[in-house]
Amino acid sequence: MKHLDGRVALVTGAGRGIGRAISIKLADAGAKIVVTSRSRNELDEVVSSINKNGGEAAALECDHSDRSQSSTVLERSASSFGPIDILVNNAGVGSSGDPRPLAEFRDEFWDLTLEVNLTVPYLLSKAALPHMREQKWGRIITVASINGRVTTMHAGAYAASKHGVLGLMRSLALEHAAEGITVNCICPGPVKTRMNDIRVQYDANRLERDLAEHERGLTPIGGRLVPDDIAPMAVYLASDAARMITGQAYNIDGGICMA
């Protein structure tokens, strides 16, 4: 028996990268998956991959920069397989969208980053809690970042949002610890995604380094992570084996933050 049989998971930002990898691994463990993204084509590819492998998945287009869409996504998700048992807050805006010093920061990009990276996990977690509390079982997993622990240059909004989501996670974890609901974060280091590719190129240019050499030195282990390095932790935290783990933030970063 697959250990997540009978569970329903919602994974945001699941069209590609980390969200896609987590969705596929959760489905492999038996969960029914609802995936959200702005891109229907990417969502359909993820759903097709899961279904071809014997899983069950449904796609839900959602632009999480639009609060009216985020506010109804849990209700819309439930129409596919029922209420959400496992919420994976993965959708995010990276610093690569407009990296610059805070003194030159665009307020619009600040607002967008905080909305998607911090307010959306708040809204979705709040909406998921009634069902989780009723059944006395639930898993809320947020993909944060090592920039929730240490910052980096020209990423003020991103670092602030990721520090903030760790505080949100800990508050939720404490308030619902006695109700069978666990709330944890995963803090990836640099992962080979479309968004991170842009950031790595930006930093290599900023530091006047060769791109390949810069990438090799990004982690003590060497190089960048890949999305499949992150997904197993999400599956573990979603399982009953992790029932006594809550309020934690796990670094998966190639050795950057050894604390």
Sheet with the most strands, sense and barrel status: 7 strands, parallel
CATH class wording: Alpha Beta
Helix amount = 40-55%
Tell me the series of helices and strands, N- to C-terminal. Answer: EHEHEHHEHEHEHHHE
Structural class label: alpha/beta
Fold-level CATH name: Rossmann fold
Q: Strand arrangement, largest sheet?
A: 3-2-1-4-5-6-7
Number of domains: 1
- CATH superfamily placement: NAD(P)-binding Rossmann-like Domain
Q: Can you tell me the overall shape? A: globular
Mean pLDDT: 96
Q: Give the radius of gyration.
A: 18 Å
* Alpha-carbon distance between the two ends: 36 Å
Counting DSSP E segments of at least 2 residues, the number of strands comes to 7
Describe this entry's structure for a reader.
With 259 residues, this protein is of the alpha/beta class. The protein has nine helices and seven strands. 44% of the residues lie in helices and 14% in strands. It starts with 7 loop residues before the first strand and ends in a 7-residue tail after the last strand. The chain has a seven-stranded parallel sheet with strand order 3-2-1-4-5-6-7, sandwiched between helices. α1 (17-28) crosses α9 and α5 (107-135) runs parallel beside α6 (156-176). It has a single domain, classed as NAD(P)-binding Rossmann-like Domain (Rossmann fold, 3-Layer(aba) Sandwich), CATH 3.40.50.720. The protein has helices spanning 17-28, 40-52, 67-70, 73-81, 107-135, 156-176, 194-206, 211-216, 231-238; strands spanning 8-11, 32-37, 57-61, 86-89, 138-143, 181-188, 249-252. It is globular, with a radius of gyration of 18 Å. β1, α1 (17-28) and β2 form a beta-alpha-beta unit.
